[in-house]
Each structure stands twice: as C-alpha cells, then as structure tokens.
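Weekly modeling sync, notes
Attendees: AB, CL, MP (scribe)

Item 1: holo prediction request
CL wants a bound-state model with magnesium ion before deciding which constructs to order. AB pointed out that an apo prediction alone won't tell us much about the pocket. Agreed to run with the ligand included and paste results into these notes for async review.

Input as submitted:
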Amino acid sequence: MSDVNRIPTHIEGLDENMQGGIPKKHICIVAGASGAMKSSLTFSLLYNSVLYGDTSGIYVTLEQGKESLKSHMSNMGMNVEDARVRNRIAIIDLADLRVQLDEQGMSDRVDWMGQLIKQLTSYRNSIGFEVLVFDSLGAFFTLTKMENPRDEIFRLFEAVRRLNLTAFFICEMTGDDHKQFGEYGVEDYLSDGVLHLVMEREGDDVKRKLGVVKMRHTNHMLGYKPFWWKEDEQRFSVL
Ligand SMILES: Nc1ncnc2c1ncn2[C@@H]1O[C@H](COP(=O)(O)OP(=O)(O)O)[C@@H](O)[C@H]1O
Ligand SMILES: [Mg+2]
C-alpha cells in the first residue's frame, strides 16, 4: 500500500516506522488511561492533517465541552482559531447533539445510536469530511445510558465503515489490564488498528509511552516508545 493511501499521524518518528501513516478508511482505537493524552494526540493528528494535507474532519467531543477542548489544544500551542483549522475541523459536543435531537422533538425515548449515525451520515454528505474522531465511546454510552453497548458498537462501526472514512475511537482504559483496549470487549477486534498510550510509573516519576498494538496492512514498530509534546513544533515525537 503506498503512502498516498495513508493519513500521516504527524508524530515525529512514528510515520517513518509505519509505512507513512494510517491506511485510509481504517477504524482505529486510541486507548489509554485518563490523562494519557488520547484527546491531545488524536486532535493533533487531525490538526496537522488539516494544516499539511487536504484532509477535513469532525471531532465529536463528549468527554469535555467544545470550549474546554479548544482551550486545552490552544494551551498546548495549537492555533485552533486559524481559518484553515476552523473551516476544516468541525467540533461537535454533546450540547450540539442534544440541540439536533430536540429539533427533531424526540428527546424522550431516543434511539441515540440511530440518531448519531444519521447525523454523521448527513455531515458526511454535506461537508464531506474524511476523518472522524469520536471522544469517547465510554462517554457516549454513559451519557445515553445505553443498555446493550456491544450491539451498539457493532452497529456504529458497521455504519462508519459504510461512510468510507478514517475513524478514531477514543477508549478510556481503567486498571492495568493491557489485554483489553476497550471497555466493552469488542472494540479492539472490530477495529483495524489500536494505538495504546500508557503512563508508566518508575519510582516517583511517570513516563508516557506509545505503542502501536495493531495496524492492519502495515509493517509497524512494535513495543512501547516514550513520547512527548513538542510545543514549538505543535506535534508529538517518539524520537
Ligand atoms: N501545554 C501542555 N504541554 C504538554 N502537556 C500538557 C499541556 N497541557 C496539559 N498537558 C497534559 O495533557 C494531559 C491531558 O491530556 P488529554 O489529551 O486531555 O488526556 P486524555 O484525553 O487521555 O484524558 C494533562 O493531564 C497534562 O499532563
Ligand atoms: Mg480526553
């Protein structure tokens, strides 16, 4: 598969070690504990793809509101008010989703997943974005009190596959169980790729590390490498 069919992560040292990036149309999981920088890393991927490529994307933020997300990214040195970024990254939070639902007058017994899929499809058709970030699956299921998350994840992933875009689903991990990357036990096997961010304690210090656990159609580095944010370059590095 040539580089043309990949989306670079813009993480220094990573793209070189995964044939240029993530194959387009892949569904990827970005997993890690709270504070592991899942949102930052995924947003920076989208941010840099927009600035240095033709990509456009949607960032669905359910863990935190739109303003909080933007202020975090801006504190990290990313210029979220840049016209290119504003025009090419649509940030959607729970308040936006709720407004849409209220407009449709069905806030009581909502088929949240059906509505979400409908909205993503309509965004896809109207703005034609290519990258979807969903932050996070856990937040969506908690907020919507969904009874059967596993079935709903099947449904969501199937629908996203039909939309023909590259998707990143953020999954919060609790505990040290490195065998399961999602909360519901199906996310990692339904996905094409898994990026795992860990915070390792060494004495009183904590080191951040990144591992590519799985990336279909890709010869990628194995093992966990330290990573950090380069504020002056607005990108992460694993070098
Ligand atoms: N300017 C900054 N530069 C580098 N790291 C930062 C900066 N601001 C915050 N952080 C780190 O980012 C972490 C939060 O990252 P975030 O992407 O929200 O994590 P997650 O989504 O995995 O919970 C904070 O706990 C802090 O350690
Ligand atoms: Mg987050």
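Recorded for review: Helices lie at 38-52, 66-75, 83-88, 94-103, 112-127, 137-144, 149-162, 187-190.
Action items: CL to compare against the apo run; MP to circulate these notes.
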